[in-house]
Design brief:
- The complex is a heterodimer of chains A (about 110) and B (about 120).
- Chain A has about 110 residues and is an all-beta fold.
- Helix content of chain A is about 0%, strand content about 50%.
- Chain A is built from no helices and 11 strands.
- In chain A, strands 2, 4, 5, 6, 9, 10 and 11 form a 7-stranded mixed β-sheet that branches.
- Chain B is globular and about 40 Å long.
- Chain B has strands at about 5, 10, 20-25, 35-40, 45-50, 60, 70-75, 80-85, 90-100, 105-110, 115-120.
- In chain B, the strands form 2 sheets. In chain B, strands 2, 4, 5, 6, 9, 10 and 11 form a 7-stranded mixed β-sheet that branches.
- Chain B is mainly β and about 120 residues long.
- At the A-B interface, strand 4, strand 5 and strand 10 of A face strand 5 and strand 10 of B.
């Protein structure tokens, strides 16, 4: 099973700043099958990025994903108030096992 | 509107059973693979099970293998999760999630979740 480790656990930033979230994999992620999700309290997760760098439908272009192999990054170029939430990475290239990272909490400084 | 709506959650004693349902609308359900994902209170996301569009391929997480059964009825646009021999650690919100078109196994549509509490 591929273990995903997200860092930092908590990131404190102000609106307008740039956010960089990391996701490290214990083994290479096949075909860059890595996704990022945003989750707000009491709500279901929302898909932001799939295949490491493709934005999902309706996702603003301030969200971008990059990386390959074992190191992946989600970047939010300029934080908006609605971006403060928990972010999860997910790998889906290692069938049949799908795994999520433990999450990064993005909080307002 | 594309939508997934879960139901069937509730309080059950350890060792008991529960069947979750997920009703799909707004898209051609029979064309999409589906998954169940759970989230224990205050914790992260855990993938539970996968089923292909025709039910020909099914996968389970090791933590539920032999106890949970995923199934679907494409004529009824519905996904199911039969949960037997429930344990305290199965307490969680259970989400059904659609595999996005061309996304291999990333989940583009999620339901609102249904809470399962296993407690005596």
């Amino acid at each position: 099973e591929i273990v995903l480790t997200q860092s930092p656990a908590t990131l404190s930033l102000s609106p307008g700043e740039r956010a960089t979230l990391s996701c490290g994999a214990s083994q290479s992620v096949s075909s860059s099958y890595l996704a990022w999700y945003q989750q707000k309290p009491g709500l279901a997760p929302r898909l932001l990025i799939y295949d490491a760098s493709s934005r999902a439908t309706g996702i603003p272009d301030r969200f971008s994903g990059s990386g390959s192999g074992t190191d992946f990054t989600l970047t939010i170029s300029r934080l908006e108030p609605e971006d403060f939430a928990v972010y999860y990475c997910q790998q889906y290239g290692s069938s049949p096992s799908i795994t999520f990272g433990q999450g990064t909490r993005l909080e307002i400084k | 509107e594309v939508q997934l709506v879960e139901s069937g959650g509730g309080l059950v004693q350890p060792g008991g059973s529960l069947r979750l349902s997920c009703a799909a609308s707004g898209f051609t359900f029979s064309s999409y693979s589906m998954n169940w994902v759970r989230q224990a209170p205050g914790k992260g996301l855990e993938w539970v099970s996968y089923i292909s569009s025709s039910s020909s391929t099914i996968y389970y997480a090791d933590s539920v293998k032999g106890r949970f059964t995923i199934s679907r009825d494409n004529a009824k646009n519905s996904l199911y999760l039969q949960m037997n021999s429930l344990r305290d650690e199965d307490t969680a919100v259970y989400y059904c999630a659609r595999v996005g078109p061309g996304m291999w196994n990333a989940f583009d549509i999620w339901g609102q979740g249904t809470m399962v509490t296993v407690s005596s």
